[in-house]
Structures are given as structure tokens and as C-alpha cells.
Amino acid sequence: MEFFFDFVSPYAYLASTRIDALAAEHGREVDWKPTLIGVTILKVMGMKPLMDTPLKSSYIAHDKPRMARLMGVPLVQRDMRGVNSVAALRAFLWLKQGDPQAARRFAREVFERLWVRGLDITQVEDVREACIATGVDADAVAAAIDTEAGKQLLRSAVDEAVAREVFGVPYVVIDGEPIWGVDRLWMVEHWLRHGSWEPVAR
């Protein structure tokens, strides 16, 4: 299973709270793969961010907290102006090269930092604090994310996502089946249980 995400998406955060447990119930592993929705949505698809889209923005503001309540997880409504995930995603990919589990712990911390505690994730110092909270080498990570190699890791990850037509997050690919949206996790579970799209007899 592949799980495409961007830290700035509240729906990716919500999915991140469930995806590993859902996979584990069926003996599956999840490969967490970051992308930048600012590239896929704004540059490739030519669309506005959801919260800048007339009519839709009001719905999203109403939908995020109710989805969180339904899923039983905390979520804060926060102003996202000036927030970006570039540094945090570079850090995630650098960590993933050496220790995928540490990278995943870091990712959860960044998601919680932004969507539970309402803190920023944009600056290198924010990334350092997330590293310290998850027990990884903050100095090494901070140094790596500004190198050309660190930048290339994220460029390559975004290129892969675009090439595979990942148009938004959360986006799950399981046995070649693409499934978009936290509200479609029930489809992920159906596939894990049955390996087909045939309806289940009641």
C-alpha cells in the first residue's frame, strides 16, 4: 500500500491517523510518500486551493471539524496563510532513506504539530523541534534539508506523484487500485477484506 500525503492537508492528517492500523489489520505494510499539493493542484491542474475556491471553501470549513469528530481525533481550525511543508517533507524523505520508522514517527509529529497543536511547520526551526520530539538527530536533519541532495529528494517525489496522476491527498494506491480521499477509506478497507469491488452480500 502506498499513502501519498502533504502535511498541509487536513484530510491527509485525518487519514494518517488510520492508515497504518487499517493496513496492519490485514497484514499489509504502508509506504508513506510525500508530495506537494501546491504543485499538483496549482501548477499542474491549474486550480485554486480549496480554501480560496468560492462556494467550496465554506463547505470545507464546516466539513473538516465534523470529519475529525466522526473519526474521534482532534483537529484545530487554523489560518494556513504563509504555511508550507517543503522543509518538513524534505526532512521526512531524508529520514526515510535511513530509517523509515523514524521518518513515520516524524511525520506523525509534524501532522500533530500543525493540526492538533496549531503550530507552524514552515521554518527549519519548526522541523528541528519536530525532530527533537521524535528522538532523531535535529542537527543532521536541519543540515540535510538545505542541500541539493535534500532538495532533489522532494523534487523526485513530486515528479513521481505527478507521473502517477496523484491529483490530491490523501491518495492511496493498493494493488494498483487508486483511491482518493479520507472519506474513501471504507473502499480501502473493502479491498483489503475482499480483493475486489464486488458488493458484499447482506
Describe this protein with a few key phrases.
Glutaredoxin, single chain, globular, alpha+beta, four-stranded mixed sheet, 54% helix, 202 residues
The number of distinct structural domains comes to 1
Query: What's the story with the biggest beta sheet?
Result: 4 strands, mixed
As a percent range, the share of strand residues is: 5-15%
Order of helices and strands: EHHEHHHHHHHEEH
- Counted by DSSP, the helix tally is 10
CATH superfamily: Glutaredoxin
Percent of residues in helices: 40-55%
> CATH class, please?
Alpha Beta
Mean pLDDT: 93
Compact overview of the structure:
The protein has helices at residues 10-16, 19-24, 37-44, 56-71, 86-98, 100-115, 124-134, 138-144, 148-163, 185-194; strands at 2-5, 31-34, 171-174, 177-180. It has 202 residues and is α+β, with helices and mostly antiparallel strands. It has a single domain (7-194), classed as Glutaredoxin (3-Layer(aba) Sandwich).
